[in-house]
Design brief:
Elements: E1 2-5, E2 12-15, E3 18-21, E4 24-27, H1 32-39, E5 48-54, E6 59-65, E7 73-79, E8 81-88, E9 99-105, E10 109-112, E11 116-122, E12 127-133, E13 142-144, H2 164-167, H3 172-177
Antiparallel strand pairs: 1-2, 2-10, 3-4, 5-12, 6-11, 6-13, 7-10, 7-12, 8-9, 8-11
Pfam family, one: dTDP_sugar_isom
Protein name: dTDP-4-dehydrorhamnose 3,5-epimerase family protein
Family: Belongs to the dTDP-4-dehydrorhamnose 3,5-epimerase family.
């Protein structure tokens, strides 16, 4: 398992080894020892596993949980390709407002500690994204910042397909002014 720290504090990208033969393939998108060696902590207790399937051109995010303890995520893409985007939404963080992106495909994964925002753009039809989450879904705590915020200037196509919720999300400045963001 290869690991690489992203530009957003605490976020990591992982590339597992894929074992192929004439039968197909075998891969472990998550390995606890490799994760702990890279990040320096054990993976959070998993409270929920979720999967999304998106058509090409769909963009989801920038989603986050605002209340403590927030929601950490380990995300991988077993089918298709996504441009995965991590945004630091933690007020007081040295990398607040910064983002980094990584293409996830072929089981590549990304880890986001609590307080970071997550988004992706599906680059192929029927793209599947799987999530391990540190807490279950609580609608009242799940918020979003606009993918199209010009101040963030995220690499999201102008014609991306967004949900109504994501289209109506506030900008980072609006979320900050309304005290909707997590704190570092």
């Amino acid at each position: 398992m290869e690991a690489r720290e992203l530009a957003v504090g605490g976020a990591w990208a992982f590339a597992p080894e894929v074992h192929r033969d004439d039968r197909g393939l075998f891969v472990s998108p998550f390995e606890a020892d490799a994760f702990t060696a890279a990040v320096g902590v054990e993976l959070f207790p998993v409270a929920q596993a979720s999967t999304s399937v998106s058509r090409q051109g769909v963009a989801r995010g920038v989603h986050y949980a605002r209340t403590r303890p927030g929601c950490a995520k380990y995300v991988h893409c077993p089918r298709g390709r996504v441009l995965d985007i991590v945004v630091d939404l933690r007020v007081g963080s040295p990398t607040f407002g910064k983002w980094d992106s990584v293409e996830l495909a072929g089981f590549a994964a990304v880890y986001l500690p609590a307080g970071l925002g997550h988004a992706f753009v599906a680059l192929e039809p029927d793209t599947t994204v799987c999530y391990l989450l540190s807490r279950g879904y609580e609608p009242a705590d799940e918020l979003a910042v606009s993918l199209l915020d010009p101040a963030l200037d995220l690499p999201v196509p102008a014609d991306a397909v967004l949900s109504d919720r994501d289209r109506a999300a506030p900008t980072l400045a609006e979320a900050l002014a309304a005290d909707l963001l997590p704190h570092h």
